[in-house]
Amino acid sequence: MSQRLGVIDRYREWLPVTERTPPVSLLEGSTPLLPSRTIGAALGLRRLYFKYEGLNPTGSFKDRGMVVAVAKAMEEGARVLVCASTGNTSASAAAYAASQRLRAIVVVPAGEIAMNKLSQALMYGAKVVALRGNFDGALAVVRELAATYPVALVNSVNPHRLEGQKTAAFEIVDALGDAPDYLVLPVGNAGNITAYWRGFKEYHAAGRCRVLPRMVGAQAEGAAPIVKGRVFKRPRTVASAIRIGNPASWEGATLARDESGGLIDAVTDTEILQAQIWLAASEGLFAEPASCAPLALLARLAREGRVEKDSTSVVVLTGSGLKDPDAALNNVEPPIELDGDARALAKVLKL
Ligand SMILES: *Cc1c(COP(=O)(O)O)cnc(C)c1O
User: Could you report the per-residue pLDDT of 49-62, keeping only the tens digit for each?
Assistant: First the structure.
């Protein structure tokens, strides 16, 4: 039986780790790359895959970068981690801190994060501070805190995060035997699109893939700073993981877009929620709203004939649908309440 490895062990030679880096792992990464059974055909795309990052230990891709950031912070002697978060970063930081007996302090925008993400951070034992204002304000505060006090900042402005996150690109190439033609993912703080592009370029330079994908990023219409070329002071969208008005890796995202010949465009909340139901009900994949923005964008591009039928596309499902069920439940029929026997049940079900 082959042993499952975490990100650091699986891709050690591609990461900034040394023999002094502690062996941190929750067996993150190695997530499934699932071929589409329904949606690809409906969109006329022959090869569509979903990279299901919701199966990471804390339910999002954040674990890939967090494991490297935490290992490096420990190597440098840190005992306290701090981050600002729309939710998933805090869950991940808190979990790795717990596993290594470090303290985690997470600063979240008050009232803006999904309950299940908050519950994760609290259960893993982090100190959670709900700061009034939005994510961008919270990030500014923790950056200043880390500049002044002995705490390690583990937001994606921490370069080790992006190093860990690029391993998702490696996994896709290792699974397909080459890079896809299109890599489609949500863009919030823009660290992930930056990291994927770096991963593909490194593998390409080393001869591991012949193709370099076009990077296609999806923002939400109410939080589309990169699409519109301006900061959004009050970002608004149902997709809380990409509710960001001033992305820290703005330049990395535009570089990935332009170097790859890709694009970054915005989708509406309605398109996001429709894509979420479509994905869950037709593929059996429940992803959180932010993760469904790229599917909504790909669907639009395919319908407009802007994606070649023969091409290979990978949509990155960045986080599990269980992270934020409230957003989804408004859009499905509630359960049928019934007081009766099998016949009554059969009647309601029109069997
Ligand atoms: C963090 C996150 C994003 C956004 O990623 P960035 O690197 O900030 O662009 C998208 N989806 C989910 C589920 C996330 O947790």
Answer: 999 999 999 999 99
Q: Of ligand 1's atoms, which has the minimum distance to the CA of residue 195?
A: 7
Mutation test of ligand 1: which of 88, 156, 219, 276 has the most ligand atoms closer than 8 Å to its C-beta?
Answer: 88
Q: How far is CA 261 from CA 165, 168, 214, 216, 258, in A?
A: 21, 20, 6, 9, 5
- 8 Å CB contact between 97 and 103: yes
| Local structure of 316: helix, strand or coil | strand
Query: pTM, whole model, 2 decimals?
Result: 0.95
CB atoms within 10 A of CB 64: 30
- Provide the CB-side half-sphere exposure for 231 (13 A, CA): 9
Give the Cα separation of 43 and 39 in Å (integer): 6
Number of neighbouring beta carbons within 10 Å of residue 333: 5
CA of 346 relative to ligand 1 center, distance in Å: 43
Residue 331 has what pLDDT?
84
Report residue 51 CA to chain centroid gap.
Answer: 10
Pocket of ligand 1 (CB under 6 A): 60, 62, 88, 156, 186-192, 241-242, 288, 290-291, 318-319
What is the spatial distance between Cα 86 and Cα 138, in angstroms, rounded to a whole number? 9
208 dihedral zone (left: phi>0; alpha: psi -120 to 50; beta)? alpha
Ligand 1 centroid to residue 169 C-alpha, Å: 15
* 337 CB-near residues (< 8 Å, 6+ apart): none
Q: Rounded CA gap, 183 and 328, in Å?
A: 25
CA distance 73 to 83: 13
Q: What is the DSSP string of 215-236?
A: EEEEEETTB-HHHHTS--SS--
- List, for residues 315-351, the tens digit of each pLDDT value: 999 999 999 988 888 888 888 899 889 999 999 999 9
- Report DSSP letters for 170-196, one per residue: HHHHHHHSS--SEEEEE-SSSHHHHHH
74 contacts 48 by C-beta, under 8 angstroms? no
Average pLDDT, whole number, for the chain? 95
Q: Is the pLDDT of residue 1 over 60?
A: no
